[in-house]
Each structure stands twice: as C-alpha cells, then as structure tokens.
Write a structure and sequence with these properties.
- There is one protein chain.
- The protein is of the alpha/beta class and 614 residues long.
- The protein has four domains: 67 residues, Arc Repressor Mutant, subunit A, CATH 1.10.10; 184 residues, 3-Layer(aba) Sandwich (Rossmann fold); 187 residues, P-loop containing nucleotide triphosphate hydrolases (Rossmann fold, 3-Layer(aba) Sandwich); 81 residues, Alpha-Beta Plaits (2-Layer Sandwich).
- The chain is 35% helix and 23% strand.
- The protein has 18 helices and 26 strands.
- The two termini are 32 Å apart.
- 40% of the residues are buried.
Length: 614
C-alpha cells in the first residue's frame, strides 16, 4: 500500500425510475428532489442540505433508488485564496519596455535566460504576471519559485485572483496528502501555474514555458541535505530541457547573476523607479553608541520609539526586523565568562524565555535554564544579546495594550501559520509586525510606513566571503518594505557603525555602487564569480578520524588538481554538529565537464577505502 494515495468521498446518483416512484417517504422525496438538480452529490452534502441521515441514504440504496460510487477529491493546499477576478494588467512605460524584451525572448521558443532587476516596489511581479498570461495563451506552463514559505500567501492571493484554479502550491509545510494532490493536479494539466519554494523546481509541469526565480539571490534556494542541489541550477537545466525562458528576479541580484548579465550570458532588464510614482523610503541611522552614552540600554532606541508612537497615532503599521529568534543569544557567567554549549554541537545555546529552556538551533537539543554556571558553579549569570522574544516583551512595556505580531521559526511551526499571521496583520491592521528574515523581503502591505532594523551590525560579522553581499541584500530588502502605498515610508537602522560602507549603500538603495565595490574585492581575491568554489566536507563522530580523513582527502585532491587553488583542511564554522566533527577543503577552479568527471573519480577512489566511508 502506498504511503500516500488519493482521497475519495462517497457520492450517490439517482437510479433510473427513482423519480417516478410514488411510495417514497418525505425524507426520501427530499433526497430525490435535491439530486434532480445536482445529478450526483457527496453523501455528506446531501445530509447537510436536506437534513436526512446516513440511514436514509443506505435504505434508498437497498431499495434501488440510489447508486453509490467513490469520487476523487483534492485536498486544499491553502486556507484562503480570495476570489477569481482577473484584471487587465497595466504597466508603466518602464515596465512595458522590460515586458516587451522578455516577451520577445519567449516568442523565440528556445532556451534563454534573463535577469529582471528593479528597486523594491518597482512592480517586478506585475511584469512577470503579464508574461505568464502570454505563456498560458501559448498553451504552456509556468513555474514560480520563492525563497520563503512566508512569501507564498500574498503571492498566491494575487495569482489566484488573476489565474484562478490553474494555480497550484508546493512547499514543505503542506501535508503529504496535500502535496500528492497538488502534484496530480500539475501532472494532469489541471494546474499550469505552480508557485512554491525550492522543492517546487521538480514539479511535473507539462510543456513548461517559463521558470521564474523571485529573490534569486537568496541562499535558501540551496538544499544542503541529500540530494544536494541549488534550485537555480535545476531551473537552468529544466529551462534548457523544455526550451523555456529562465527569469531571475531581484532588487539585489547575486554577484554571479549580475556579472553573468553584464558579460552577456543573461539578458538584462532594469526597473529604476517605484511603480505608480512611489518614492523610496527615507532612511535614518541611529548610532547605538550615543544611545548607550545617553543611558538608553533597551533594544528600541529613542528615535525609533518616537517614530513607532507617531505611526500608531496615524493608524499606520510598522515592521521591526531582528534576525535572531528566542530571548537572548546566550547565558553568560559574569564570574568566569563561560556560556552553556550544546553537548552535541560546538555552539552556545540560545535562551528561550517562553519555556525557560536553552535550545540549540542546529540539532534541536534543549536543556532547562541553569541556575549555576556549568564551569565554576557561580550564581551570577546574565542573559546576553537579544532575540525576537525579548524585543516583544520590551515592546509590551513601551506600548502597553498594543498588539504585536511575532513571526519567526517559533511562531510559524503550525500548519498555515505563516498565512494566518500575515492575514491578521493585513486585515486587522495590527500596529507592529516583529520578525526574522522571513519578513525581510517580498511582503507588500500598503499601510506599512515604518521599518526598524534593530541590529544592522549582526549580518556584517561573518567569516563567509558573501557576508557583505548578504548584509546589503537583506537590509535593502527590509528597508524596501516601507512606503509601498500612497504614504511615503521611512526606515531607522540601528547600528554601532553608521559609517559602514555596506550600510550606507543599503540605506541609499545603491546597488550599482555596492556591486562595483564588491566585484573589485572578489576579483582581487579570486572569489566567485571569477572562479567556481568547490567544497569537500569530511565529518566523523571521532575528532581524530575526521582529521585523518580530511588530510588524506586533501592529499588526494592535490594529486588530482595540483596545489594551486586548494585551501584547507580547516574546521567548519560550526565545527561540531549532531556529534560529528566537520572539516572543509576548498578548491578554487573553473567548473566544466572535465572537472566534474575528475571530482567523481576522486571521490570514488577515496571512498573505496572503507575507513573513509560515512
């Protein structure tokens, strides 16, 4: 028996001659009358609309008045989708120019790739929705990928209003049965506009004509679990396979994508202005050093507090962003400086006040809040750093009685919780939405006129060479949530480094200036897009065995590729995860078919030795 199968309901229809029968009870006559207009119907519906019971239906079956059969039904993949009310999509001159160029690429009916780059609020979605209309008119299907489940409710509502039941939804929060039904709808051609997260890239869309990657720069498109893949790479393959157009969308494209566009490998289209004459938000920096010297030690600075209060008076909405969930980053012993670490991973555990437990966000291990330092047994423990739970508590003190919605991994674990939170924020005009990266991009609420970035420095301090790029992208995106309606928006960025060039570029929404600086940095150090970076990962439950295996793999790689471009082995940024010690080896190279065959041969030969198998 398959783990998942189609869902059916019992239905009945009238048998021949049932209407002419005269010896019917009143309830049986009610059923006959109902089915005269409906032809057939689920038993559950008949019982509801006529007031009869299952016993009456069974008796009519035995008398030969009704014939029963099983009918397949699809489990709905979404809670609320609005009404099917298609409208003519009106584009600005700038949007029309981009659409015309993209439309020409579609008309060629051969594999093509394009990048649509536009400032936040420039109407990039409208352009590709109109493009989808052209694809559907040609009898072909469309696949639209988004990086976060949180982005699907708003997009789904817009798409359903325009395309109706032709829209299907695929993401990891759906039940197995819902995914099964959506897959069948797609495969059968009932749904030819598919929206989803990275797993949707495999959806069996017949006659695929267009693949869209919205917010294409996001690293959530990469799956680190087996099978490892990047949705952008799979999308490229599918576009070639189906002779379709691959369309990358972003206000802050990845360095690799914009470089490819400038090199002529992608067609490039730009939207420099907000749709309908909207203005980009004004941005103010709050120097947190001055806040501390003034005796203000809270997460919400003085200027941001005043702006929030003013927004509430005007019945406008605000979004507050901090990319850390929980209460505090960790617990610190003020006597010896020790912090509780996960016994399975080499990371400090995050404190969650809601259940008064320490949690590891890597393996899921949790432990009760300690009363003594695990190292020196001191009672002098302090909670360091700030997460969404702590900010929510601070806001409750600053604005008593004001409802605050929190959106992070702790509040969105339930089914359709993303949709429910965003729907409440929109329909009930909740004053403040507080959240992590899932609220930083793609959301479009016309009444949001204020955005607060509570800890802009957090994203800058990472050992990843893409840290600057990610920080710029995230800040640009979250600032762009403000002022998307008629009222101009404003944003406050709280930082200890108000002169940092990445922050200044993000505040000015100056992608070109950031790109020129970042691309020069990448070229000087020979980092992507000027090379392909290949990472070999080695892990073992025993530290010494992991080190030995990494050293052996490094020697084998040097024999195959030479020493130039090899880096490591070195401990992974999080050295131990789930009781496994991890080391990385990097190779700077140029990806091609010869390289792939060499890597494959290297790993096959290396794993032939049993002691190196996982």
């Amino acid at each position: 028996r398959p783990a998942v199968s189609g869902k059916t309901v019992k239905c009945v229809r009238l048998c021949e001659g049932a209407i002419a029968r005269s010896n019917l009870t009143k309830r049986q006559k009610d059923v006959v009358e109902y089915l005269r207009s409906e032809e057939s119907a689920p038993v559950k519906d008949i019982c509801y609309f006529t007031g009869v019971t299952q016993t009456t239906i069974n008796a009519m079956e035995k008398k030969g008045l009704l014939e029963s059969f099983e009918q397949e039904v699809f489990r709905p993949a979404y809670m609320s989708k609005g009404e099917f009310m298609p409208e003519d999509i009106t584009l600005s001159d700038e949007q029309q120019k981009a659409f015309t160029g993209l439309s020409a690429l579609l008309a060629e009916k051969k594999p093509a790739a394009a990048l649509l780059m536009g400032v936040t609020g420039s109407g990039k979605t409208l352009v590709y929705m109109k493009l989808i209309e052209q694809v559907l008119e040609a009898g072909r299907g469309t696949l639209v990928l988004v990086p976060e489940i949180a982005l699907t409710p708003q997009l789904l509502e817009r798409f359903y209003r325009q395309f109706g039941n032709r829209v299907a939804l695929l993401h990891s929060s759906l039940s197995a049965g819902e995914r099964y039904d959506e897959w069948k709808r797609i495969q059968s051609g009932q749904a030819d506009v598919v929206i989803g997260t990275r797993l949707a890239v495999f959806a069996p869309v017949p006659n695929l004509g267009l693949v869209v990657l919205d917010e294409e720069q996001e690293d959530t498109y990469y799956s680190g679990q087996t099978p490892k893949y990047h949705a952008r790479d799979v999308a490229k393959f599918r576009a070639v396979q189906h002779e379709a157009l691959l369309l990358l969308i972003s206000a802050t494209p990845s360095m690799e994508s914009i470089y490819a566009a400038k090199e002529g490998r992608y067609a490039l289209f730009t939207l420099k202005n907000r749709y309908a004459g909207g203005q980009l938000p004004s941005v103010s920096f709050v120097d947190m050093k001055k806040e501390l010297s003034s005796g203000r030690f809270g997460t919400i600075s003085g200027p941001l507090y005043e702006a929030l209060a003013e927004n509430m008076e005007k019945r406008h909405q605000s979004i507050l962003f901090i990319n850390r969930r929980g209460w505090s980053r960790t617990i610190l012993c003020q006597n010896c400086g020790a912090t509780p670490t996960c016994k399975h991973c080499s990371v400090a555990m995050t404190y969650h006040r809601a259940n008064r437990r320490l949690m590891c966000h890597y393996c899921g291990y949790s432990a009760p809040e300690p009363t003594l330092c695990p190292s020196c047994h001191s009672r002098h423990l302090s909670k360091e750093g700030t997460g969404t739970q702590k900010v929510a508590a601070e806001l409750a003190v600053l604005f008593p009685g004001v409802e605050i919605l929190r959106m992070d991994a702790d509040t969105t674990g339930g089914k359709q919780s993303h949709e429910q939170i965003l729907q409440r924020f929109k329909e009930d005009n909740i004053p403040i939405l507080l959240g992590t990266q899932m609220i930083a991009k793609g959301l479009d609420f016309p009444n949001v006129t204020l955005v607060g970035v509570l800890d802009a420095d957090q994203a800058l301090h990472s050992i990843d060479f893409r840290a600057r790029e990610r920080a710029f992208s995230r800040l640009t995106q979250v600032v762009g949530r403000a002022g998307r309606g008629e009222v101009p928006g404003r944003a406050f960025i709280q930082t200890f480094q108000p002169e940092h060039p990445v922050l200044l570029s993000a505040a000015a929404q100056d992608y070109i200036g950031f790109y020129e600086s970042e691309i020069a940095f990448r070229k000087a150090l020979s980092y992507p897009p000027f090379c392909d970076l290949l990472r070999f990962s080695v892990s073992d439950e025993t530290e010494s065995r992991a080190a030995d295996a990494a050293a052996a793999l490094r020697a084998a790689a040097a024999h195959t590729f030479g020493e130039e471009g090899l880096i490591g082995p070195a401990p992974a940024p999080i050295y131990k995860v789930n009781n496994r010690y991890r080391l990385h080896i990097y190779l700077k190279t140029q990806e091609n078919a010869t390289l792939r065959s060499k890597v494959s041969a290297l790993l096959v030969a290396f794993l032939a030795d049993r002691k190196y198998r996982g």
